[in-house]
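Researcher: Let's run the pair from yesterday's discussion. Sequence first, then C-alpha cells, for each.
Model: Starting with the first of the pair.
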Amino acid sequence: MPSISIKNFQSKNDLVVYETDVESSADLLVYKTSSKLKALENEAFWYIENFENSSDRSICFSNSKAAADLSIHYVKDDASARWQGEHPLKGKLKS
C-alpha cells in the first residue's frame, strides 16, 4: 500500500479501519514497514507517515467493526502479511 497517515477524525475520502486483536477475524493482516518502497510491493505492507500531506492515503480508526471499511490485525513479520479471503477492497489499496 502506498504511504498512509492516521487521522483522529474522518474525512470523506478516508479509509475507515477497525483494528482487531484476533488474527482470524481480520480482513487484512498488516505488516508495518519502515520502508516506503517496500510498502509499494504489497497492500498488506503499510508505511505510516507522520504528516497527512506527505501520505498517499489517510485512514481513520473506528471502534466499531460494522462501521469500518476494513478490519486489520498487525503481524510481526512481512511473510505473514496478506489478505484473508475475498474482500471488496482487495487490489484497490495500492492506488
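Model: Moving on to the second of the pair.
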Amino acid sequence: MRIALKIISLVLVLAACSTKKSQIQTVVHLNSRIEGDQFIDSLISNGTDSLIAYYSGCSDCSRNFNRQYAIYWYSEGHWNLRKFTSKARYQTLKDYEPPMAYLMANRKSIADSSLNSSNYVLSAYAFELIRIQFASQSIEYRIKDYERLGNEEHPKVQLIDQMRSALQKIPSESWKSGME
C-alpha cells in the first residue's frame, strides 16, 4: 500500500510539473555586423550618398561580447543615427551628427594613409571598423586593438576615437529598442 501511494504521488508530481509553463526565456543574439551592413546597403540602394558607420567587433571572442554598429546618414537636411548591437535593434535618432569637421579636414589622409605595422599578431582581438560613403567615394578600414599602439595620433585612429566619443555622449535613455 505504501509503495502504491508513493507511486501515485510521484505520478501526480510529474504530471503537475509537465503541465506548468516553462519560465525559461531564450536570449536572442543578433549579428549586428550583418544587420548593420544590410541596413547600409538598403540606404545606398534608396539613394543615400552620405553615410558614416562605426562598428566595434571582436575576432574569436565569446558570444557575449556586445558588438555595436552605429550608422549615421544624411537625409532631408539632417543627420540620422541608428544603432544595432548583439542584443537589440534601436530606433532612429535624429540630429546627432558624426564628427564631420574632423572627417572633412582629414579625409584625404584617412583615405590614403596606412598605419605603422605592429611587431606581433594576436589571434583573438577586439577591433573597430569605419565605413564612409560620400557620393562616389567609399572608404573602409579596420583597426585591431593592438595596432593602435604607436598610431595614437594617426587620422584613422583619431576618427575612430571621435566616433566612439560622440556615441558615448548620447544619453542611454535616448536609445529605444525596436524598429520603427
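Researcher: Give me one sentence on the second I can quote.
Model: The first strand starts at residue 50 and ends at 59.
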